[in-house]
Structures are given as C-alpha cells and as structure tokens.
Amino acid sequence: MLAVHLISFFFSKLKEDPTKKVDRFLHAMRLQDEQLVDISNRFLAEMKKGLSAESLAAAAVKMLPTHVRSTPDGSEKGQFVALDLGGSKFKVLRVKVREDEGINKGGVEMEEKTYPIPKELHEGRAVELFDHVSESLKDFLLEKNMSPEKKHPLAFTFSFPCEHPGLDQGLLLSWCKNYKVRGLQGKDVVQFLRQAIDRTGDMDVDVLAVVNDTVATMMTCGFDDQCCEVGLIIGTGTNACYMEELRHIDMVQGDEGRMCVNTEWGAFGDDGALHDFITDFDRDVDAASLNPGKQTFEKMVSGMYLGELVRLVVLKMAKLGLLFDGHVSDALRTKGKITTADVAAMEEYRNGLKNTKEILTHLHLTPSPDDCVAVQHVSTIVSFRSSNLVAAGLVAILTRIRQNRNLRGLRITVGVDGTVYKTHPQYPKRLHKVVRRLLPDCHVRFVLSECGSSKGAALVAAVAQRLTSQRRKVDEALSLFTLNEEKLQLVKSRMREGLEAGLKSKGCTIKMLPSFVYHTPDGTERGKYLALDLGGTNFRAMLVRFKRQKTRLYHKIYTIPLEIMQGTGEELFDHLAQCVCDFLDYMGLKNVRLPAGFTFSFPCQQSDIDTGTLVSWTKGFKATDCEGEDVVSMLREAIKRRNEFDLDIVALVNDTVGTMMSCAYEDPKCEVGMIAGTGSNLCYMEELRNIEKLEQSNKWGGLGNDRCLEDIITLYDVEVDIHSVNPGKQRFEKLTSGMYLGEIVRQVLLDLTRRGLLFKGHVTETLKTPGIFETKYLSQIESDHLALLQVRSILQQLGLHGTCDDSIIVKEVCGAVSRRAAQMCGAGMAAVVDKIREDRGLERLSITVGVDGALYKLHPHFSQVLKETVGVMAPQCDVTFMPSEEGSGKGAALIAAVVRQKHQMQN
Ligand code: BG6
Ligand code: BG6
Ligand code: GLC
Ligand code: GLC
C-alpha cells in the first residue's frame, strides 16, 4: 500500500505543470526586459522618423500634429455637445464645463447616450454613416430639450488616424479596427459631419474641434492633473499621444511652445520594424482582419485582437494534441468566438479557472482541470505581452519627453482609457510595474479617464474658443507697438524738424549741444592719457597709450551704487575720485599728472572743450546739486578734496562723441556717433555755417517732450514716464533705450495679466516690482537659440512663474517693444543722415556711424532692425554701422590727445 502511495506521489511530481508546456509553446511571446528596451529604442527611432520632414513620407508611425497646444488650465468654460465615434461605443453627450472648478468640485457635468451603429454601416458608405451620426445627434438634442435655434458648439472625438490642417479639420488617412467605410479616405471628416447635419436639418451646430481619443483622454485627465502630458488608449484599438516641442515637429511652422502629437503607434511595425517579434498567430490575425498588413502593433496589443490571438493559440495547441486530448470543436474554429472580455474573465483573480472552464465548455469543449490551467496561462501570456508592448512604447515616449526637456528624472502623468485597461483585472498593475522598472528615474502617475474622452474633447473646443479670444486681445495690445511706414515717416520728419529747430534756438526739445570737437583724429596722436567714463551701465577708468602703430588700453570697471547715483553731488564725485585713485594705484601712476578726457554721458551745455554744465540728469541718476553746475569743476574739486593724486582734465566728452571719435580713428568716414544702451543718443558732424549757437552734439532722447510723438506713445509708455525720475522728459529715449524697454515690457505684462490673458491672471508682487526686467533679460529672452523652456526658466529666475504659453506671450511682448525701439532709432538716424546728405548737396551719401551700448551690442535683433529701417527710410544713404570696440573712453582719450597736441603746438 505504501509503495502504491509512493509511486503515485513520485508520478505526481513527475507530471508536468501545465503552464510549462504553454511557456514553451509561446516562448516567442514572453518578452524579457532587454527585448522591451530594444523595442522601445526601435519605437523611439520611429518617432524621430515620423517627426522629420525628410523621413516622414516613408515613416510607418505617422506622428500626427494635432493643433492642440496646451493642456487645460482650469479656465475653460462653456456648454458643448460632443460626439464620440471609433471606440467600442458611439456616444452623443452634453458637457458643461464651469470656470475654475475641477471635476471633483462638480466643475464638469456630463450626460450621455449610446447609439448603436448597425453592423452594415461599419463597412458601408461614408454618407450613410454620417447621416446616422447626425440623426443620433438630433435625437439627443431633442431628448435633452436643447433648443434648435441656439448655436451649439460641438467637439468631435474621432478615433482614427487623421491629419489636421487645423483644429476643426481632420483628413482621414485610413480606417482601422472594425471600420472600413467607403468614400472618406483622404477627406475631411468635419466637412462630412457638417454636410450630414445640414441634410438632417433643424439643428444649429458649430463643429469647433475634431480630436483623436488619445488627445481627448489626455485633456480629460489634464483638467485635474496639470502634469498630464500623455494620453494612452488600450481599448478596441491602441494608441498614444504626448506633448512634443514644436521645434521638433517639421510639419508645423513655428518653433515656440509645444503641440500634442498623435503618434498613431498602432502602425508601429508596418514597415517590418518588429519582424523578429511577430509570431504565426499574429500573422493569422492580420490576414483575417479588415486591414491586412496594417496596424501591426495594434494587432498584438488591443482589445479587438487579444481574444482572437488566444483562440488561435488554443486551437493550434488542441490540434497538436497539447489540449483537450486533441479534440477541437467547430466553435473553437470560428473567428471571434473568444473575446477580449473572455480573456479578462479567464484571468480574474479568484474565479479565473472557473470562468475558463465555463468559456471552454461554451465552446463545446470538455476541458480537464489542467486544460483550464493551461488555457488560462495562454490568456496571461497574450495579455502580458500586450501590456509589455504598451510599456515599451510608453517608455519611448517618456524618454523622448525627458530628453526634450533635458531632464534626468521626470514627473509626469499619463491619462489612460479603453476597455482593456479598464476591465482586465491585472492589466494596469502589470503595465505600471514594467514602466516603472524600465524608467526608475521617472515618477510616472497613471490616471484613468473616468468619464471617457468627451470631456477632454469639449475642453479642446473650450481651449480653442478661449485661445482665439485671448490671441485677439494679445494681438490688439501688441499692435500698439507696430510702426508702419507712415508712422516711421512721421518719426523721421519730427526728428528732422527737431534737429533744425535745435540748431536755431535754445529752448528746444532736442538740445543740439556743442562739443567743441572740430577735428576727428588724424593718427598722429601719441602719449599716455587717462579716460574716465560715467553714464553707461558702469563707471570705467581707462589708461590709453597711443604709440606709432598701436594703441594700448588698460581699464577697470566700477559699479555705482544706487544710493550714490541718487545721493548728493559731492558724494557722487567723491566716489568717482576714489575709483580713479584706486585705478591709478593699480596702474602705479599715482604720482604722474596725466592728461584726462572725461566722458560724461548726460546732457551738458558746453562753453568750451573742458567745461560743461549739466542740463538735467537722465537714466536714473538724480544726485543733488549738480544740475546747472560745471561737472568738470565738480570732479576737479573732488580730486582736490581727496588730495592723493592730480589730473589734467583737458576734455569733457559725451559718449556719442567719444564713440564717434574712437571709430573715426579707424574709419575717417565715421561722422556720426550713436549710443543705444542704458540711454539713447546721437551726435554728428554738423556744418559750422548751420550752427547759430555753435552746437554740434544732438540730444535726440528729448524728442517728444513737446508731445510730438503722442500718436506713437502707448498707455504703457505713459505709465513708464510717470514713474520715472524725470517725468515728461526724454520721451524718445524712454521709447528706445535699455533703461526703459524692460519697464515697458513689465507694464504690458501687468496689463495682460490683469486682463486674465497671462499668468492665469495672478498679479504677483514680483510683477509689480519696477526694474525687474533689465535689458540683459530682454536680450536673453529674445535670443533665437533659446528653447522656450529656457525662456521659462529665465522668467522663473525673475520670480515670474508661468506656463510655456505664457513664455511665448512674454517673448512676443519683448519682441514688439524692442522692435519698435530699433525702428524708432532707425527712423531718427534716417533723418540725421538725410540731413547731412542734403546739406552737402549730394545725390547719394556714404557714411559710417560709430555705435555703442548694450542694446546695440547684446540684443539679438536690435542692430538688424535698426539697419533695415535706415535702409528703407533713407534710401539715398549707404550707412555702415561700426561697433565701437573700446567704448567711448578711447574716444575721450583721443580728444584729450588732440586738444593736448594742439595746445603744445600753440605754445
Ligand atoms: C472611451 C472613449 O472612453 O475610450 C472613446 O470615449 C475611445 O473615444 C475609447 O475610443 C477607447 O476604448 P474602447 O475600448 O471603447 O475602444
Ligand atoms: C560704453 C561707453 O561703451 O557704452 C559709455 O563707454 C556709454 O560711455 C555706454 O555710456 C553706453 O552703453 P550702456 O549700455 O552701458 O549704457
Ligand atoms: C486606432 C486608431 C487611433 C485610435 C486608437 C484607439 O489605433 O488609429 O486613432 O486612437 O485606435 O482608439
Ligand atoms: C542719455 C544722456 C546722453 C547720453 C545717452 C547715452 O540720453 O542724456 O547724454 O549720450 O544717454 O548714454
């Protein structure tokens, strides 16, 4: 007896676990992590192909741009009707979206009705299908008492691959899943829908948007989770979409911001990219489908095919005698007899085996307990392969997003929908686990779209509505900065009138101030000179040594603290003397009495080359007791007070003049000097006969002080002027120079934010802070080489936290403001060079302009726009711009040298 027991125990140990034979039989379907990584990399390559213009035509994975540029931000509102076609059910819905409320707070209300689509319509004519759709819509509107008179905005979820020339157009590329309708391929589905609605009659419907179900799902989930930037469907079909950087999407113009791309990953493998992973069962499923050779990946993954795969495997195993003792029933031979719902039931946690037995019995089979275990295991392998493949695809998408954003880790949410994901008991857990295992650095959250894709489609429609109206308002605000040729002509003629008036009398807005510089240098200058340079971004002390062939320069930069800029005059000049003392110390020249040129970049009334009374402070300086005083004397006194060194200040020079001189040293045609920096100014060599009061250097910054620029000045400029240290003064400068451009930008941003068009309408303390936008930020933000994310991070450094869309608007504002500045300077410059040309009685003038200033040198577009404008506004002048290499200090030293040599010759 004992022996019998032992033998049967021994045999029971020998008898094979039924799952083992299935494992062996289906080993090609059991994908290891390395294989998944391999598949993921292949998909990554396919994505690249589909995005690039060169390889797009041949790409299997279409990567379709959707024109959806932002995920919901909570401000969407309105009531919409929605149509949802292409999944397992056709539905008509009413979606109400209330402002500023998440669904949890009841922000979205939905009512829906499912309308069956008769089988013959799946493979009938397009017109018939759309008539059915529109009649269902009408039935729904009537049932819900939605007035036929009122216009109902409609969002259309259409879950097939479409190209979207716009948000409300969808050109069908091909049918898939269980549809093969004639006469729609290549056509616009929205047009078909509109025509059907017209045929049905008695409805007023405005089709605003057509979206893929993946996109709609991403939007649905994005309403409550702002991190949701991927939409995934594992239902009748399978597909995914994600937010791609616009600059990578060759098919869409523009490179700012993001756009949702519908990958249409179902077609992955259609070009053979998955050939080594395709099994005979996949080939059989494909051959029996409505679209053989197409949607390779989808046929390995989605609900439409999983049951069929299981049936084919079970049939084959039975035929080989590995199941049911080799018995095969007619039902088992029939396509569609095992469904994806059956697969889910067989894998149920407690009742799985019982369900398997029932399902098989229903197929007129007589399964043994081992058969049930084996068939259940077939299901598991087939559905596991599906979730593994989806994981591989998803890993590719997440990797791409992470690479796009230059991040190591990534926190992101994936919105998911589809019957497989929703009803298969193990599927979600398996999928999540594999994704997290393959991407350990990423924090991936999966959110089930609880209420289908229609909410998301309605949100797309709402966003479309909102963006159109926002865009209009932003464009209106920015159009205030647009200068057409007529306006530029006006600036030019006003500048010309200002110059003429300034040459004649004193009380003018453009102070044509004399510089007492009669000669440009001639190259014979020699010796060591000191140059002091106050009025730009920094104070500079410089030693210039003119030798026979070359000039040597040594300099040191000193900042001027705000409290000194705005303290007393004595403090300011004492500070300058201290800086000079430090510099001489540093150069070991404290005991030499050097001749010095003093670049003082503020309006001065000069009565000689080395005396000048400050007319008024500009550019944020307001030290007391200086205006009306001779600044050279003030500097001399400060040096005396310090009593540590001595200087022979021989020339007082404006920076424009210094710039002109230093450039003229290189190019004798340089007869104009221009500064586009903290301030804005210009000087030129005027004919002495025209100067009634011996004046030469222009102060063009003052143009407009007599209100002659009123038709250009915007409400934003008015704000900037009111809050400046010199209201009503330097109106031209306040439109054109670095000191003010940032402030103008800030005023525009403030206004747009107050009107809810930016930063979600949150006016922060940062935004209210004057001076946060320095010119350098403007230059950075407008750089062409900067991705939008970098713009966003610059804004974040400034304490302005916004979305990528906000960054686009900020960049546009900066562009509008700086462009206007460059155009104004161009028109002003045109007035000056044309005057010189006319004064000399020339048909054409060829002239060089020496330029300096941070705006000119560092801003990415200013110099180009300036040049273009001069070209258009002064067509008879050939103007060459020559950036000053060493600042105006070298020019000041040159002037000092010219003056010194003249004195020496006279003595
Ligand atoms: C639904 C969406 O929730 O999910 C459909 O509303 C979508 O638009 C569907 O197609 C995908 O799942 P299934 O299983 O119905 O194809
Ligand atoms: C410098 C000059 O190079 O340019 C200064 O030396 C001048 O004198 C300055 O004021 C203007 O530029 P910014 O941008 O510093 O105001
Ligand atoms: C198919 C369609 C695709 C859709 C998916 C899920 O793959 O081509 O557009 O998103 O099914 O429904
Ligand atoms: C301011 C000053 C002017 C100077 C210009 C550029 O406009 O008034 O003198 O040239 O800034 O720095």
From TrEMBL:
Its EC number is 2.7.1.1. One of its GO terms (molecular function) is glucokinase activity. GO terms for biological process: glucose metabolic process; glycolytic process; intracellular glucose homeostasis. SUPFAM superfamilies: Actin-like ATPase domain (SSF53067). It catalyses: D-glucose + ATP = D-glucose 6-phosphate + ADP + H(+); a D-hexose + ATP = a D-hexose 6-phosphate + ADP + H(+). It comes from Poecilia reticulata. Pfam families: Hexokinase_1, Hexokinase_2. The keyword DNA damage does not apply. The keyword Membrane applies. It comes from the Eukaryota. Catalyzes the phosphorylation of hexose, such as D-glucose and D-fructose, to hexose 6-phosphate (D-glucose 6-phosphate and D-fructose 6-phosphate, respectively). Mediates the initial step of glycolysis by catalyzing phosphorylation of D-glucose to D-glucose 6-phosphate. The lineage of its organism: Eukaryota, Metazoa, Chordata, Craniata, Vertebrata. This is Hexokinase-3. Pathway: Carbohydrate metabolism; hexose metabolism; Carbohydrate degradation; glycolysis; D-glyceraldehyde 3-phosphate and glycerone phosphate from D-glucose: step 1/4. It is found in: Cytoplasm; Mitochondrion membrane. Residues 230-463, 672-898 form the Hexokinase C-terminal domain. Gene3D superfamilies: 3.30.420.40, 3.40.367.20.
